[in-house]
Design goal:
Elements: E1 3-8, E2 21-24, E3 42-45, H1 61-66, E4 71-76, E5 79-84, E6 90-92
Antiparallel strand pairs: 1-2, 1-3, 4-5, 5-6
């Protein structure tokens, strides 16, 4: 189910809709036209998508190190081993 963003048509609106809000709705649900708290007119606005596709390669150790990050792998309770990048070889939670 997508997360839709709503904003008042004519600001300021009430405490719920004055800054806008997000609502989880089904694709088949009609968009809201009025705020449930104040009854003011609202409209659905376009927002940033949360979809990432075809980016599995950016998590490979080679790409992590090339971009200046360090990647660790858990090897025990509170103990991590470096797999890529600069930094200490192990990190302990002690």
């Amino acid at each position: 189910m997508p997360l839709y963003e709503y904003a008042p048509v004519t600001p300021p609106g009430c405490a719920l809709c004055c800054y806008g809000f997000e609502l989880l709705q089904r694709l088949s649900d009609a968009s809201l036209t009025h705020c449930s708290a104040c009854g003011g007119a609202i409209q659905r606005v376009l927002g940033a998508t949360g979809m990432v596709s075809g980016q599995a390669h950016v998590l490979k150790e080679k790409y992590v190190a090339e971009r200046g990050f360090t990647q660790y792998r858990k090897i025990g309770k509170g103990l991590y081993e470096k797999t890529a990048g600069k930094g200490p070889d192990t990190i302990s939670g002690d």
